[in-house]
């Protein structure tokens, strides 16, 4: 059996003053004397009958002083335990033990968006109406817990939970059994993995229960399935009606993240419990660095969930705008990047020379005196730490009464403002570094403050060095809607190429993730700082953490509309109907540079819910298709068994082909250039008719530049719903001049249309010159 939630919890580091956090995974190196937690996979069917339960059997394999943290039986077969190097080696030698996976530490990837996505309640035949707002679906949110008293989670007019629901509402500190209702139908917490490494948690700092002491989980849950709440705002910003993607969908929360981070053993326990409980969707705004799938517990847990028919939506990470920063890249997960919406919160800097520089902020509190210019200080001349406004780095004699310019990095953005306020400063201008580019994230600061881009930061610092004396003020303009261009790819959003499987385009899609309003615990300051006494029922955050639950909610709506669709079918509908232009018809741009974005930035494009409900054709994928993919990706039969719990035979004609032949809704060809020979490849794809019974689709080919691309046949004629037809894509290209170690990327697409549906399959061609 899975371990009792009473013994389970995890840790997550969320710098709450950061609206999003960079993705970092810590791997512990084990010496002969140190201990580390391992996730142990066993042959479940090998249990001797003498043992009454699998747990008794597992315990018999452990040394006397070792104890089981969790047992797993749904998406994974085995247990977790803290072991020394010698103990781990001994356990690995047992015949019934398949593998030991070292535990990793994970971190969080941390309205108007329904309207922006076209989900309007007034529609009489839209996605919301057609699915009854997702009322019979259950979304499992693996995160920091939930604040159950939020109006976003009221159960007004909701009926009983779906009949297949088997979950629990586990009580704990400040979370009585009555915390759940017909909206929040399940709540568990898992901390045993965290405590196995760190010892018992300090219950004075966080709740040993599903209650959210952080805010991140409450925010993401409300984005996925929050009820309609009016009025809603944060400190007077973003006033209006708040709602999630699937307002009537039921919620089940699985708290695995704590003050210090999230541990793999607890995350796997949450996956195991969620699937056993009967969720339809799992929303996971947590991640780490990319490792091979058999060492990635999130990938392993997500495979088991997908096999059980559960749609898994995961955040792409906040490591952008650099390349190779996308995370959660397994092809059985839907990986979601972040885009902007058409709303912002301008807070401009006016310099003493009259120059006005745009910035953003959601500061709510006593403001600066209108019309007054204040002394302006850049503390960077005093050293590195002062330029970043780190704790105790500023001289109060220099700071008092001034607006201080701080640079991003190391500590959180809200913490920098707290340092300036503590030193006697009256305001702060927070500047991006060159890596951050021009992307702006609005924060709920503790003093009058605004964020500006990298180029603006350079200009302000130049002004300070030349002016005598330099002065400035900050002008807060509230909420502004209808901003264009939108959507843009958020600067922080994780970018491709896929570090583990170059043949699979990741992220899959993007969704709103910049400056998103969501529910917030009224026990937590909107800045996330303990010194901040302000409270709000809603907060504005940014990150792929916020983009992911948008797709989780949409996945629930699509599942409600099409109960027989697999997780792959749902992803296919979202991918093939996504768009790559802004609302004015221009190409979607990258927020960090203003340049045109690429498939590496947005995957197939921005989600379009109203088109996704009727995609016409879908690319479906079975469990055994994924096994073939792993074989063609050169995973060993042993490692495939770790991921899939299946014994795979990777030889023979059945495995002929390449990893790119997985029936994915996008195409990615990767060539290593050797000499000047013609390079070619092919893809076989199968589409299923989910549109009109009698329909004829014709293909339009947009080849990458200087590439020959053909599709056979060029017409697909369907005679019934559910009918499957194949087509062959052939691609040829000549090498190009590249310096050793460099690559070039070209893009194209294949579009099937029956005059009613448009099914777009993006194509990516990468050519690499080896060293």
UniProtKB/TrEMBL annotation:
Q: Where does the record locate the signal sequence feature?
A: none
Q: Where is the Inhibitor I9 domain?
A: 37-109
Active-site residue numbers: 143 (charge relay system), 216 (charge relay system), 545 (charge relay system)
Q: Which domain of life is it from?
A: Eukaryota
- Name the major location: secreted
Instruction: State the protein's name.
Output: Subtilisin-like protease
PANTHER family named in the record: PROPROTEIN CONVERTASE SUBTILISIN/KEXIN (PTHR10795)
Q: Organism, per UniProt?
A: Cajanus cajan (Pigeon pea)
